[in-house]
Amino acid sequence: MADLFIDGEWVSGAKGLTREVRCPADGALVATVDEATREDTERAIRAARKAFDDGRWSSVSATERGKLLIRVADLLERDTEVIAHAESLDTGKRIIEARYDVADIVSSFRWFAGLANTNLGRVVDPGTTGTFSRVVYEPVGVCGLITPWNYPLLQASWKVAPALAAGNTFVIKPSEMTPSTTILLMRILQEAGLPDGVANLVLGSGAEAGAPLAEHPDVDMVSFTGGVITGRRVMAAASVTVKKVALELGGKNPNIIFADADLDAAIDNAATAVFLHSGQVCSAGARLLVEESIHDEVVDRVVAIASKIRLGGPFDPAAETGSLISRDHRSKVAGYVERALAEGAVLRCGGSAPVGPAFDDGAFYLPTVLDGCTTTMSCVQDESFGPVLTVETFTSEAEAIRLGNDTIYGLAGAVWTSDMGRAARVANALRHGTIWINDYHPYRPQAEWGGFKQSGVGRELGLAGFAEYVEPKHIYENLQPAASGWFGESEQNIT
Ligand code: TXE
Q1: Which residues pair with 5 in a beta bridge?
Q2: N or C: which terminal CB in the chain sees fewer CB atoms within 10 Å?
Q3: Residue 391 class from Cβ within 10 Å (0-12 exposed, 13-18 middle, 19+ buried)?
Q4: Residue 382 has what pLDDT?
Q5: Å from CA of 206 to ligand 1 middle
Q6: Residue 119 Cα distances to 54, 199, 376, 419, angstroms
């Protein structure tokens, strides 16, 4: 079965290449999919360009676009089990987490379906003084969408839904490791009745299938979620044609616990903040900042939770978290932990792969706690994107804020305290795109998601996540046109 979706047709790559997708929990073959090369992506861009330029989607009324997105949400909900199953096999995440992901994906489509009808335009000058001036918002054009492997379809939905709601066409390239659910989404878009050429899918490596989306002059904007190094590369490539760019590049997120916090809640959530999905979450609370007076109690209790977390495959009902995405990624995480220990961090638990037949063929890594860390250490500054918690201490509110901001990233952070004045002060002072007070992880599709500093450019979700996909245009109309007399030889010009 052909897996690239170009101009409304399922096709194979021009060079006939394929790639195996394997479940990271046990190495089992999930699928063999077609692999696009640069020329396939260029073909998909041409299809998206034509579909945008002839107006087959942008001229559809906002109401109809919204209705189609609702239909897509309903079909995604109908196919929850199939999608969750495919997501679990590609990523190794537990099926229960994949089901939660599908619910969030459905919510994302419903949110942007509602926004399709919300015209951001406004009248600037109603015409009473002889001119009528309005600002209208138009689709950006052809969008290049590049997505990663940790929440494959969720991250795709944060881009596809607003792109379609605003009337754009797109080419999407999911991570080469996790293509299955994006293929399913394309089938659903087709079933929902999206015109041919509006949605296009290419599969393959970043360098070959993805890079043209940042480089090609016929792509008007590129939206990328992934690592900061690739993000810089995408931004540099996009600068050649001065494309609009939206980037979500991860974080190194502080989770700050003051001594007056509800410690039962704070400690339990400190473990979830970092060990959910084995730490492969851009907003993972991987930096624990603890007030010095409660350091021992908090760390002992977090270590006790971490040491008991049960690892297992996606369909193991006893498992509490799953495998890392690949053995290469596990090697990266292991290297990060080794560097931390060499720099003086104290290993409190984990620090290796689990042993046993259930783990031998996977990419598992034990939940790890590194105590005695400081901001000068690479483990505090670099994203491990694995199940690794670093612990630092502070003695004052000002120090907690200073440490929480001592990072090149700025995606998310949390503060735990029973003093609501302090909670507000810390929340205001932290330079991160999302701040939780006495909680960790929840997000809302209605609220903007994205980062300060090197966590990215622009926002997803919320109103700003829709605004990324439109261009404002000012239309000025003179209701009583007359010669201005600025130039020329008429009498009134000669003083
Ligand atoms: O991501 P890449 P990788 C972080 C995390 C992880 C690191 C590297 O720290 O360890 O990034 O992960 C495509 N032009 N995050 O290497 O390379 C690629 O094919 C265009 C945080 O897996 O950023 C994939 O589709 N596209 C993150 C996508 O970019 C290119 C989630 C992301 O891959 C490309 C994942 C190129 N030149 C990793 N090169 C988050 N923000 O949540 C690669 N790609």
Answers
A1: 10, 201
A2: C
A3: buried
A4: 97
A5: 8
A6: 22, 22, 48, 41
- Percent pLDDT > 70 in the chain is 99
Distance (Å, rounded) from C-alpha 359 to C-alpha 367? 14
Q: In the annotation, is 282 catalytic? A: yes
Instruction: Check the CA dihedral 429-444-456-178 and report its sign.
Output: positive
pLDDT score of 494 more than 60? no
Atom number of ligand 1 nearest to Cα 325: 22
Q: Check pLDDT > 80 for residue 467.
A: yes
Q: Is the dihedral of CA 194, 197, 202, 208 positive or negative?
A: negative
What's the gap in Å between 230 CA and the centre of ligand 1?
6
Backbone angles phi, psi at 244, to 5 degrees: -65, 140
Could you tell me the CA-to-CA distances from 440 to 105, 222, 264, 284 in Å, in that order?
20, 30, 14, 9
Contact by Cβ (8 Å): 101, 87: yes
The answer to whether the pTM exceeds 0.85 is yes
Rounded distance from Cα 463 to ligand 1 centre (Å): 25
Q: What is the mean pLDDT of residues 258-272?
A: 98
CA distance 473 to 137: 6
User: Which residues on neighbouring strands pair with residue 416, listed in sequence order?
Assistant: 257
Residue 384: CA count within 13 A, CB half-sphere: 34
Q: What is the mean pLDDT of the chain?
A: 97
Q: Measured on CA atoms in the order 409, 411, 417, 419, is the torsion positive or negative?
A: positive
Q: Assess whether 248 carries a catalytic annotation.
A: yes
The pLDDT-based confidence of 213 (bands split at 50, 70, 90) is: very high
3-class secondary structure, 430: coil
Q: What is the DSSP string of 295-329?
A: HHHHHHHHHHHHHHPPB--TT-TT-SB---S-HHH
**For residues 488 and 96, what is the distance between their CA atoms, to the nearest angstrom?**
76
Give the mean pLDDT of 286-313: 98
pLDDT score recorded for residue 120: 82
3-state helix, strand and coil shares in percent for the chain, rounded to the nearest 5: 40, 20, 40
Query: CA-based angle 146:148:149, to the nearest 5?
Result: 145
- Tell me the pLDDT tens digit for each residue of 217-228: 999 999 999 999
- For the chain, count helices (H), then strands (E): 15, 20
Residue 193: left (phi > 0), alpha (psi -120 to 50), or beta?
left
Count the Cβ atoms, other than its own, within 10 Å of residue 4.
26
Per-residue pLDDT tens digits for 175-200:
999 999 999 999 999 999 999 999 99
pLDDT grade, residue 489 (50/70/90)? low
